[in-house]
């Protein structure tokens, strides 16, 4: 196991709420990742797997006397299987207000098309 993979397994993992839907010839994935900055995101396609990793860093003041401390550092890690209908060269990502949006383009050859019927 690589050192960075080992680091990921030692930290707390958070479940991330996710919506996936089709829109305008794309598959859109929206995932809540509060506390994750753009610099702490790692998104890659490895074969038929889309891997999403986000590192949540929370600054704490260790000098104060916490009564309750529920906000903790941790990771978001998700894997999704993708098939050959997705164009791996046309995947875009944006992060806004703690929500990651991935837009996966469906290959033109895989999009539904209308067949015209002619009279004879």
Secondary structure layout plus pairing:
Blueprint lengths: L2 H8 L7 E6 L2 E7 L3 E11 L2 E8 L17 E8 L4 E11 L2 E8 L14
Antiparallel strand pairs: 1-2, 2-7, 3-4, 4-5, 6-7
Outline of this structure?
This protein is mainly β and 120 residues long.
3D architecture notes:
The protein has one domain (3-110): Immunoglobulin-like. The chain is 7% helix and 49% strand. The protein has one helix and seven strands, in the order H-E-E-E-E-E-E-E. The protein has one helix at 3-10; strands at 18-23, 26-32, 36-46, 49-56, 74-81, 86-96, 99-106. The chain has a four-stranded antiparallel sheet with strand order 1-2-7-6, with no helix packed on it. A three-stranded antiparallel sheet has the order 3-4-5, with no helix packed on it. The model has no long low-confidence stretch (mean pLDDT 84).
Spatial extent as radius of gyration: 19 Å
Helix content percent band: under 10%
CATH class assignment: Mainly Beta
State the low-pLDDT regions, or none.
none
